[in-house]
Write a structure and sequence with these properties.
This protein is α/β, with parallel strands linked by helices. The protein contains 15 helices and 5 strands.
């Protein structure tokens, strides 16, 4: 499915804003998937002379982070520091060399900005220039400062329908069980295929299915030891691997009333995943939480 098919409401809203010359000075895109894709689309639709054709020089330069009036800062893999915000301010104070109506910056996963960075960014938002547009993204809006949220137009993205993606993967020849898991870990066929090509995904997938045997026996202490050995010593899970591992728990046990404690543990650990967190500490915490279930 194309972005237009996955996020029709948001894209149509942006289109109408552009056509009526009522573009907001700051957007906060909220969702588990497609936030970066929508951010690029907004930037391209506002800077491209063809309203976001996706193929012209301007659109291509935006996608490649090579446009003088477009800045993309990501907090997906590292904490956003104050210096990144100051760099945006510094660049946009300079005279533009581009023939476009706006200067646009994207801060991906703004919830992973340091408090100092958020406060510095807030000052930037409080006194917006008429030609500067901020596009922020997050999957955890509760971590974004209320003062930042109040100064943005919040756009909630639509959640993908996993069953549609699962069926598409099965048609592509994927094992139905693998397709089911991938349909919850990704937002598109392309992303699902990319995850499947990652050797670590299959290590995580196998580890999850192996640990289920301990859960079935209610051997939570042994399950904790097993995951510490597999995820820390054997396979060295990184943060993305832990994200997949916790999501697999939610997908498999979310409708199993007898194992809701496992879902709670998985969600608890999943919520602690952020840049800078040591993955082995999260695994140790997971093992500890399993041990607590065993004591109940």
């Amino acid at each position: 499915m194309s972005l237009q098919e996955r996020q029709p409401k948001v894209l149509e809203f942006i289109k109408k804003q552009r056509e009526h010359n009522k573009v907001s000075h700051a957007y906060l895109l909220v969702g588990e998937n497609d936030t970066a894709a929508v951010a690029y689309h907004i930037a391209q639709s506002l800077l491209c002379k063809a309203a976001g054709c996706g193929v012209c020089e301007t659109c291509t330069r935006i996608q490649n982070h090579d446009h003088g009036d477009f800045i993309f800062v990501s907090g997906k893999d590292k904490i956003i520091k104050k210096e990144a915000v100051l760099e945006i301010k510094s660049r946009f104070l300079q005279t533009s060399l581009e023939d476009v109506p706006y200067k646009i910056y994207v801060i991906e996963d703004v919830d992973n900005a340091s408090l100092v960075a958020m406060n510095s960014f807030l000052k930037f938002l409080e006194e917006p220039e008429s030609d500067i547009i901020a596009i922020l993204t997050t999957s955890k809006i509760n971590r974004v400062l209320d003062t930042i949220k109040s100064r943005c137009m919040i756009l909630n993205l639509e959640k993908p329908q996993p069953i549609d993606l699962e069926n598409a993967l099965v048609q592509e020849g994927f094992d139905k069980n693998v397709a089911h898991v991938l349909s919850y870990l990704s937002a598109s066929l392309k992303e699902a295929k990319a995850i499947d090509l990652n050797p670590m995904f299959h290590k995580v997938y196998d580890t999850f299915h192996e640990i289920r045997a301990y859960y079935e026996r209610k051997s939570y202490d042994e399950a904790g030891i097993f995951i510490q050995v597999q995820a820390i010593k054997e396979h060295k899970f990184d943060l993305e691997s832990i994200r997949w591992f916790t999501q697999m728990h939610v997908v498999h046990y979310r409708e199993d009333l007898s194992n809701l404690d496992l879902v709670k543990v998985a969600l608890k650990i999943h919520d602690r995943i952020r840049p800078g967190v040591i993955s082995s500490m999260l695994i140790d915490q997971f093992a500890y939480e399993l041990n607590q279930i065993g004591k109940q």
